[in-house]
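Quick sanity check, Integrase:
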Amino acid sequence: MRLTSCLHQYFYEYLPSIKGTSKQSVQAYRQSLSLFLHFLANHHSIKIKSLKIEHLTVDAVLAFLQHLEKNRKNSVQTRNQRLAAIKSLAKMIRFMHPDKKRIAEGLLNIPQKKAQKKVMGFLYPEEIMKVFSAVDLKKKEGMRDFTILHLLYDSGARASEIATLEFDYFDPANETIAVLGKGNRYRLINLCSRTASLISDYIANHRVDPIPLFAHRLFINQRKREMTRHGINKICRKYLTLALPEKRLKGLSPAHCFRHSCAVNMVTSGAPVSDIKNRLGHQSIESTMTYLQLDLSKKREIQNMLMEYMQSKITHDKKIDELIDWENNAEILAWLDSL
């Protein structure tokens, strides 16, 4: 059987219909297997369309993994992600083509490589406040960015989850938002009063009218299209750079550090592990247990101040008032210029 036919079955039948895999995962698998196919064809000195399932040897896969680390300078984590995609394909072969089971089993027996765990990069409460303060609300995208940063910290959602939020997922009356996470699983998150108030204000007064194709999305970029994961990370990187010294930025993943900070805040507040797991959308409790190993004896009074800030409404927020005053002044100046 040609490998290209097998891949067509994998992407158009197995992943969407049998597994119900999310679009993000399908895209990640497609990228990984595209790299692998080009390497595999070169490895066997044949064209991609001539590849067969029998060309999926353990030696070829191991050579590909070595190529990723040595030639492409990929990290061990990236190497393991590429291997996971190949193993996913192997599972389909084992399931849908039992006569090729021996080939599939060989691939599935390839172990993941152990990687050195990085220090978890999270922000302390006073640093969160500095990042919030770095937003210039006088700029047209200021309120959107201000709202996104609050939502990232409050919800613990991933950048991709924030980018794909839909307009109807937000319930202002109950101060909740539904988040579609990994594995196409929804989780309902109770928001702090301030975050819910900011989202309502953003929708009512600052959300750009999108082109019809993206009218269902909550956050819209300057081109009137939906936000992307890369766009969310760019926003986070911008304000982290403005608020924190360069040395502090090392080890911080732009959007993910807000997710870690949310978890750390819940741990120091005494939240049950199950609550943290559900809020972050972890599939395994082991992922959540990582946060319990941190030394969090840092400025309890500052954390309390941040908690009070997040629970407050924005009615008397000084920065919002300044924005309103600036907008009013701009309207007056425009009127005077028209005389």
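Posting the structure with no commentary besides this: Confidence is low (pLDDT under 50) at residues 335-339.
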